[in-house]
UniProtKB/TrEMBL annotation:
SUPFAM superfamilies: lambda repressor-like DNA-binding domains. One of its GO terms (molecular function) is DNA binding. This is Helix-turn-helix protein. It holds the Pfam family HTH_31. It comes from Streptomyces rubrolavendulae. InterPro entries: Cro/C1-type_HTH (IPR001387), DUF5753 (IPR043917), Lambda_DNA-bd_dom_sf (IPR010982). The lineage of its organism: Bacteria, Bacillati, Actinomycetota, Actinomycetes, Kitasatosporales. Gene3D superfamilies: lambda repressor-like DNA-binding domains (1.10.260.40). Residues 20-73 form the HTH cro/C1-type domain.
Length: 275
């Protein structure tokens, strides 16, 4: 292999590959030998070492285990992944994982915290087919969804308040079974002791205070922050003078929307195919 193929400073992906190759060389291992230890082919490792292929979280963890590098490769992978996500979102996710209360309003698509693996996969594959992301990035998007959901399973669990625009329930997503499973997931979510689920129907009209998705976090110290997105980046707001009006509007949204019982009944009707 021509070592000059790769410039470690050209990208985080290239730096990951250069580190993997250097540590392998220090141990006197061939790509076949490292591949045997990690469970990957030498061809696959070659594409990682030369930066032609994006590493996955699974590969990063196996590299750490095989090379006894602690969590070096996993941390490097996470930094790389953050670089491919919408600006501002990784920082939000870090706070979300520690929040005492999570409030969200979503339009058009199920929020990541409630997505089933199949639903998340359909979204990722759609972006892949449009050429918006690579196959590796599609895989990581699904992984991010799973990691965010896993972070909710802690003691004590956060309170999670969800208001979904009716469009989230009615937008087709892959095969009919995918949406049916997703609707069942919503019903299961509503049954949890630390959750509240409401649907904002179309006929709420102008009575809804938000037109775009919004996330509001209450941290353990009771400080507040909000997160919203534009087409190009995410915006994390920590100033209470800016977040408090949003929290007030969210409470107004909850007051106007049907109760959780009525919302679940609506979801059950949709699953049965009735309007």
């Amino acid at each position: 292999m021509n070592i000059k193929e790769l410039d470690p400073d050209s990208s985080p992906q290239a730096a990951f590959g250069a580190r993997l190759r250097r540590l392998r060389g220090e141990r006197g291992w061939t790509q076949d030998e490292l591949g045997d230890r990690m469970g990957y082919s030498s061809t696959h490792l070659s594409s990682i070492e030369t930066g032609r292929k994006m590493p996955t979280l699974r590969l990063a963890r196996r590299a750490d285990a095989a090379l006894s590098t602690g969590d070096t490769f996993e941390r490097e992978w996470r930094e790389m992944r953050h670089g491919s996500l919408l600006e501002g979102f990784p920082e939000y996710v870090e706070h979300e994982a520690r929040a005492a209360e999570i409030r969200l309003y979503e339009v058009g698509v199920m929020p990541g915290l409630l997505q089933t693996p199949k639903y998340a996969s359909v979204l990722a594959q759609s972006a892949l087919k449009r050429g918006a992301i690579t196959a590796e990035q599609a895989e990581e998007r699904v992984s991010v969804v799973a990691e965010r959901q896993a972070a909710l399973i802690r003691t004590p669990p956060p309170m999670v308040f969800v208001v979904l625009d009716e469009s989230c329930l009615r937008r087709p997503m892959g095969e009919p079974a995918v949406l049916d499973e997703q609707l069942e997931r919503l019903i299961e979510f509503a049954e949890q002791p630390n959750t509240v689920l409401q649907v904002a129907p179309f006929d709420m009209g102008a009575r809804r205070p938000f037109n775009l998705p919004l996330y509001i976090l209450t941290m353990p110290d009771r400080s507040l922050m909000s997160y919203a997105e534009s087409a190009q980046r995410g915006f994390l707001e920590r100033e209470s003078t800016s977040v408090l009006p949003l929290l007030t509007a969210y409470h107004q949204l909850q007051a106007e929307a049907p109760s959780q019982a009525a919302s679940v009944a609506m979801i059950r009707q949709l699953r049965k195919g009735t309007p």
